[in-house]
Amino acid sequence: MNNDFLPKDYKEPELVSNYTKLEEGETRLRMLEKPQLGWQGWKDEVNEKSEKIAKPVRIRSQSGESFQVGDFEEEVRDIKFIWVVPVYNYTEKIVQIWTVTQASIRKQVTTYLRNKKWGNPLEYDLAITREGREMMDTRYTVIPEPKELVDPKIQADYLALNIGWEAWWAGEDPFQQKKDEGKDIDLDKIPV
Question: Is position 160 within any domain?
Answer without folding.
Answer: yes
